[in-house]
Amino acid sequence: MNRRYLFVSPHLDDAVISCGDYIDALVRSGSRVTVATVFTGAGTELSLLARIIHKKIGLGLNAMDSRREEDRLACKRLGADWLHLDLLECIYRKNNEGNPVYNKLTDIFRTDYHAEHEVIQEVTAVLNRRVNPNAYEKIFVPLAIGRHVDHGIVRHAVEKHVEALDARGISSLIYYEDLPYLCFRNDPGWETDLAQDLHSTHITLPRSCLKMKIAAILQYPSQIGLLWNSKISMMKQMMRHSRSFHPSRLGLDRQHYAFRLHAAGAPDAVPLVTLAPSSGLQE
User: Fold this and answer.
1) Is the dihedral of CA 238, 244, 246, 252 positive or negative?
2) Helices (H), 188-243
3) 276 confidence band (pLDDT: 50, 70, 90)
4) Domains located in the chain, CATH noted
5) Alpha-carbon distance 36 to 234, whole Å?
6) How far apart are CA 76 and CA 73, in angstroms?
7) Which of 120, 221, 238, 247 has a CA between 20 and 30 Å from the CA of residue 278?
8) Given strand 4-9, what is the order of strands in its sheet?
9) Which residues lie across from 260 on neighbouring strands?
């Protein structure tokens, strides 16, 4: 029987950019993977910030239709299933007076996500209706590196979701590092703030998985110009990241690299794990 794994993605690209190579490895091993994206709904009466972002990504009022199709193509490339939960991401959300919650891009990365308690409740409710955590052996969620408010909301909502409906509690969760935000190096305290009580583990992946990840990211043309200067800069960043840490105990050759995850439960239960921590130390 194939093992099933769920990757919860805040936006239409986060899980693939962060974990596309690992997803490819899981699918190759015979597992069934589903990518569930939370914020896939289309906003109306766009704010100035939303209009600016739409212009930058080269999409009009129907931007989310195009982005959902990009995500379907990316998931197909990796052999993963997809699920769109249709909630509104931060640039589309409005307060009770009908005004945009976020007017500046910087506010998205400086807001305490706990202040969005109504959105956390909404995400948790949708997960409770549409996702059965017991159907998956493990659930992967973002650490929220970079402090994007939507990433923090999703992390907290999934934790509440599994605590309510999964007898395993948060031990069923595995946390992934948010790319490209980790690569921007704007969140130096993330290991202490976001991963202190988690177990760092490593998976050895072949370079072919990195190629598949890059091929999947290329299915998001609207996001390339938003997150990177060009396709080439994206590829270079992904390749640099794959070489960014080399645990000596892995004994990696030039055809393999280490992929890092953070487990809430037993680290040796992480799928395809190569190296679990000793003495509780982070690598």
Assistant:
1) positive
2) 190-194, 207-217, 221-227, 231-242
3) low
4) 4-269 (3.40.50.10320)
5) 23
6) 5
7) 238
8) 81-84, 32-37, 4-9, 138-142, 173-176, 256-263, 199-206
9) 202
Helix (H), strand (E) at residue 271: none
In the Cβ-directed half-sphere of 219, how many Cα atoms lie within 13 Å? 22
Q: Using CA atoms, how far apart are residues 70 and 229, in angstroms rounded to an integer?
A: 19
Secondary element (H or E) of residue 229: none
Cα-Cα-Cα-Cα dihedral sign, residues 165, 171, 172, 177: positive
Record the tokens describing residue 123, joined without a space: 């995400």
| Model confidence pLDDT, tens digit, residues 86-120 | 999 999 999 999 999 999 999 999 989 988 999 99
Separate counts of helices (H) and strands (E) for the chain: 11, 7
The Cα–Cα gap between 17 and 78 comes to 12
Q: Which residue has the tokens 């007017």?
A: 103
pLDDT at 268: 87
Report the half-sphere exposure of 48 (CA within 13 A, side-chain side).
3
Average pLDDT rounded to a whole number, residues 23-34: 97
Tokens of 282: 């982070």
How does pLDDT run across 181-196, given as a tens digit for each residue? 999 999 999 999 999 9
C-alpha 171: how far from its chain's center?
18
Query: What is the structure's pLDDT at 267?
Result: 84
**Side chain identity at residue 220, one-letter code:** Y
Determine contact, residues 145/185, Cβ cutoff 8 Å: no
The pair phi, psi for residue 258, each rounded to 5°, is -100, 135
Alpha carbons 128 and 6: distance in angstroms, whole number: 14
Secondary structure string (H, E, C) spanning 14-71:
HHHHHHHHHHHHHHHCCCEEEEEECCCCCCCCCCHHHHHHHHHHCCCCCHHHHHHHHH
- % pLDDT > 90, the chain: 80
pTM of the model: 0.94
Mean pLDDT of 19-24: 98
